């Protein structure tokens, strides 16, 4: 159902036109002057505005024309007096999509509205396809914080200085490091990531610097380390805050002198490497309190880039979700419902983009038709097999229970897990809802 905003100062016309459009299956808001129209536009977010150009308080066509840009986010159809063909053309020049002469012919009204809504639908589809296109650096999003980050990447990539990427887990720090590499003069060299937290401390040195044959039990032959592998390119020590102090000293020496020694070797080796590190920890505080070497911190940090949490860029959630859905759906055409999109945009996402990606990807795998609903997402996020939709429930009782579960999860998700509000939405008492949840295995 589309939502229309009808703006006219003639009460009889408002009433009749609204009734006719509602009969066509639209929901219609009305406003009798420019100020109220603007309020209704911001509050209701209609898909289309039908706008009389001559209205109080000014009652001049010029004032009407000046109002058109206020509604330009959606198609505007202007209503003009029959003789005012010239005004209608000026309205189109000012950004209106079409015009209708009064008295309005009902079938023509229906036709023009349908065409304008079709245009609106196509525009929305183009916008979501465009948002889902890959960007060169693989970093999606067009929120101000992400645009600033991309601009910083562009500016500091060419400088051969160390960079430290800070930000919570799952915000795309590795993507940022990779984008820095890809935009730097080292782009044709290797990009080598080392996950410092995942490698046992005693292995990290040989992992980074390599070792000579027989330098320790099991070292059957010489082995090159990741520093040598990154020669001519970028080394990315991720979770550098987890690096043991003994390794910090050794990597500091490498940063200062470009030389290092493999485990069991005396001869210093050199490598030409740019170091881009990352951590989700407050590493500056760690350096101040002494749990991370201060000299190493200052050497390592060079320039700092911050990768913002998803909660600070909610406008990126929809394009990211569309992107992940397109990736997950492969050749299938899968769409998110408006309700599902709104739910995604409201969540807190403590695991940031990684969590969003995981939820959308698993929901896409679970979805059966061509539509991804809020219930599919809620199931994917709860990760509880008991709440999984059954592919083909065998009995009526199971089908009903399945539907009840979906509705309850949807209501809980929409109310931020508030039992009373969810019960109210479902027309149940709070106790009734809790009993039902117990019966359905939801608590
Ligand atoms: N802006 C983005 N556009 C597209 N994908 C993104 C974006 N940010 C993160 N991702 C995806 O989210 C996942 C997590 O990203 P990444 O590993 O870079 O995060 P991280 O901050 O390095 O996490 P951690 O601190 O846990 O290592 C990856 O699959 C990555 O592709």
UniProtKB/TrEMBL annotation:
GO terms for biological process: phosphorelay signal transduction system; regulation of DNA-templated transcription. It comes from the Bacteria. The keyword Cell wall biogenesis/degradation does not apply. Residues 139-365 form the Sigma-54 factor interaction domain. This is Response regulator. PROSITE patterns: RESPONSE_REGULATORY, SIGMA54_INTERACT_3, SIGMA54_INTERACT_4. Transmembrane segments: none annotated. It holds the Pfam family AAA_lid_14. It comes from Paramagnetospirillum magneticum (strain ATCC 700264 / AMB-1) (Magnetospirillum magneticum). Keywords: Activator, ATP-binding, Nucleotide-binding, Phosphoprotein, Transcription, Transcription regulation, Two-component regulatory system. SUPFAM superfamilies: CheY-like, Homeodomain-like, P-loop containing nucleoside triphosphate hydrolases. Residues 3-117 form the Response regulatory domain. CDD domains: AAA. GO terms for molecular function: ATP binding; sequence-specific DNA binding.
